[in-house]
Amino acid sequence: MDAPWYRDAAMAEGWIVLATDATIRPREDSLQWRLSILTAALEMIRSEWPQSAKWPVAFAGLSGGAKRSGILAAMLAGNNGLRIGGLFLAGINSERVTAAFKDYHPPSAFLNTPIWISSGASDQIATVGAEESVYYSLKRAGFTQVRLEKFFGGHGLKRTEIQRALRWFREIGKF
Question: Whole-model pTM?
Fold first, then answer.
């Protein structure tokens, strides 16, 4: 369901979109449920395209999806076969990446992961102030590459922001 929101922007920048929504609803929508679907999808891609093990992976989400994306990235950052190229967090009003970093103990290099916070100037759910709090929380925690970018609009995604973030991830990661 989420792939169409990212597909055009990602493809314009040479990325593949993998949105691991299940066709059945779980009894409980949990991080473990989403982690299992995501890891199964990554394994399937790797079995079909072994060279994909070297490809960078960006995690992205809007609102609650942004919060979960940051947590999943921290959970998977310790996987030696996964190269995390960046986090795109749109419409995020509560910072969860720092707690995930403490809970899941990824390598300290995870603190260098580029993080792009996309903020709608008229967002009533994730207000500019809330997203600024997320930004400063990440900086205080030691994340070195964090950007807060505002756009005209509300609680949503903007294609140009996704493209700019993906370009920035490539620039920072030198890939």
Answer: 0.93
CA angle 59, 62, 65 (to 5 degrees): 65
Identify the CA nearest to 74 among candidates 59, 64, 63: 59
- pLDDT the model gives residue 28: 81
Do residues 141 and 115 make contact, with C-beta atoms less than 8 angstroms apart?
A: no
In sequence order, the β-bridge partners of residue 143 are none
**Structure tokens, 59:** 């995690």
What is the C-alpha separation between 71 and 88, in angstroms, rounded? 12
Min mean pLDDT across 37-41, 61-65, 121-125 is at 37-41
The first and second tokens of residue 63, run together, are: 């609102």
- 6, pLDDT greater than 90: yes
* CA dihedral sign of residues 53, 59, 60, 64: positive
> Rounded to the nearest 5 degrees, what angle is found at the Cα of 52, between the Cα atoms of 46 and 53?
80
**DSSP run (H or E) holding 42:** helix 31-48
Least confident of 75-84, 115-124, 134-143: 75-84
**Within 10 A of 38 (CB to CB), how many other CB atoms are there?**
18
Q: What is the DSSP letter of 143?
A: -
How much is the mean pLDDT over the chain? Answer: 93
Residue the block writes with tokens 């995690």: 59
Tokens (6 digits) for 93: 């009003």
